[in-house]
């Protein structure tokens, strides 16, 4: 609570206050009118009292999705750039809230940890399935900012495609998205992609863009660049992934 109270950034959900009663602690946060990014991408229902009411949300435009991703990148860059960096450890669409203007704010810091800059620490494997870095899924238990970077890369792909990142199944020994196999590939495919380069992989991914996004005025080169940037967040080994300040810079260069 003390750490959350110190965080001041437009893309970090601010802690307004808290109250303690016996063994219970109530945290008070700013109300976010648009709900979670997860809802806008995947859910068309909302609860009113004890009833679940279905309604249709308008599709997020490409420009709005870029704005949201830029906001998340700025928030993570702030956390990772602190004197003692904060590793969120659970970056996912469900933990990104949106205000009335669709400005993204990172929330859910229950798993977050402060670390010494450039160091990694042993930790339990935690987070949202589908967003976990491969080193965690393979039993690697050291925590660093690179785990957040990978989750951010997956978030970028999820936002662009509208697909569920946690709909994972095992096929032919490789982890794949249920709806599409372009996110995670088997070893032979990965070797081919390495030879072709990140740009070639990004061009292939353009076909995966969410069909609900209007194609009117969409700049194909900007879409390719978006996927290229995302691919640089999910590379292996972790040391080859970009740092969040680089994501911020590259995302700001995308033409809309």
List the helices and strands and how they pair.
Blueprint: H1 2-6, E1 15-21, E2 24-29, H2 37-42, E3 45-48, E4 51-54, H3 62-80, E5 86-87, E6 96-98, E7 104-106, E8 113-114, E9 121-122, H4 134-137, E10 142-143, H5 145-161, E11 168-171, E12 174-177, H6 187-196, H7 198-205, H8 220-231, H9 244-252
Antiparallel strand pairs: 1-2, 3-4, 5-8, 6-7, 9-10, 11-12
Helix pairs in contact: 3-5, 3-9, 5-8, 7-8
Detailed description of the structure:
There is one protein chain. The model is unreliable at about 170-190 (pLDDT under 50). The protein has one domain (about 30-45, about 60-250): Orthogonal Bundle (Transferase(Phosphotransferase), domain 1), CATH 1.10.510. It has nine helices and twelve strands. With about 260 residues, the protein is α+β, with helices and mostly antiparallel strands. The strands form six sheets. A two-stranded antiparallel sheet has the order 1-2. Strands 3-4 form a two-stranded antiparallel ribbon. It is globular, with a radius of gyration of 18 Å. Strand 3 and strand 4 (about 50-55) form a beta hairpin. The longest helix is centred in the first third of the chain and has 19 residues, at about 60-80. Helix 3 packs antiparallel against helix 9 and helix 5 runs antiparallel to helix 8 (about 220-230). It has helices at about 1-5, 35-40, 60-80, 135, 145-160, 185-195, 200-205, 220-230, 245-250; strands at about 15-20, 25-30, 45-50, 50-55, 85, 95-100, 105, 115, 120, 140-145, 170, 175. The chain starts with a helix and ends with a helix.
């Amino acid at each position: 609570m003390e750490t959350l109270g110190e965080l001041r950034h437009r893309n970090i959900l601010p802690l307004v206050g808290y109250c303690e009663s016996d063994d219970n602690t109530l945290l008070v946060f700013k109300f976010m009118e648009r709900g979670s990014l997860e809802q806008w991408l995947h859910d068309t229902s909302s609860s009113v009292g004890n009833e679940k009411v279905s309604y249709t949300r308008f599709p997020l435009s490409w420009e709005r999705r870029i704005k949201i991703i830029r906001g998340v990148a700025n928030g993570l860059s702030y956390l990772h750039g602190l004197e003692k960096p904060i590793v969120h450890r659970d970056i996912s669409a469900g933990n990104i809230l949106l205000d009335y203007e669709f400005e993204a704010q990172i929330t859910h810091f229950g798993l977050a940890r402060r670390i010494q800059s450039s160091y990694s620490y042993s930790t339990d494997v935690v987070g949202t399935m589908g967003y976990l870095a491969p080193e965690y899924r393979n039993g690697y238990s050291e925590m660093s900012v690179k785990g957040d970077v990978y989750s951010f890369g997956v978030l970028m792909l999820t936002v662009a495609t509208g697909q569920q990142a946690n709909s994972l199944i095992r096929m032919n020994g490789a982890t794949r998205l249920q709806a599409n196999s372009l996110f995670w590939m088997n070893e032979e495919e990965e070797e081919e992609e390495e030879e072709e380069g990140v740009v070639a992989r990004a061009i292939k991914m353009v076909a995966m863009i969410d069909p609900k996004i209007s194609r009117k005025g969409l700049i194909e080169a900007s879409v390719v660049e978006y996927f290229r940037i995302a691919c640089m967040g999910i590379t292996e080994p972790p040391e080859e992934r970009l740092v969040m300040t680089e994501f911020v810079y590259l995302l700001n260069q995308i033409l809309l």
